[in-house]
Write a structure and sequence with these properties.
Helix content is 18%, strand content 41%. With 111 residues, it is an alpha+beta fold. A seven-stranded antiparallel β-sheet has the order 2-1-5-6-7-4-3, with helices on both faces. 23% of the residues are buried.
Length: 111
């Protein structure tokens, strides 16, 4: 899928995207791109994405890592998941300089 290739290429340099759920304001969140999906860790002591829940549709906006201009809008479906050990390690590494404090992990599958 062409969208997956664009996401893969762009997210190698920048691990943050804008996520919009329903009528809530867009939120800039850090993510991990794995297995053809964006993984987002959320929680009250972590980043929050209002309205994000299992089965909800959302919009992901990606900016170019080099020019910071709009690159791509991707509709996605959120799935609350229990990540495997490799994904947990990737999420912890992406957290940068802080201990993971998330309560939930969502897999955003491009629709």
């Amino acid at each position: 899928m062409e969208t997956s290739r664009v996401l893969d290429a762009a997210l190698r340099k920048a691990g943050a995207v804008w996520v919009v759920v329903d009528e809530h304001p867009a939120r800039l969140v850090w993510t991990v791109w794995r297995a053809g999906a964006l993984w987002v860790a959320v929680g009250p002591d972590e980043q929050e994405v209002p309205g994000l829940s299992d089965g909800v549709r959302c919009q992901v906006t990606l900016r170019s890592p080099t020019t910071h201009s709009h690159l791509l809008d991707v509709p996605a479906v959120a799935h609350r998941v229990e990540p495997d050990e490799e994904t947990m390690a990737a999420l912890a590494a992406a957290r940068l300089n802080a201990s993971p404090r998330w309560a939930e992990v969502y897999r955003l599958d491009p629709a």
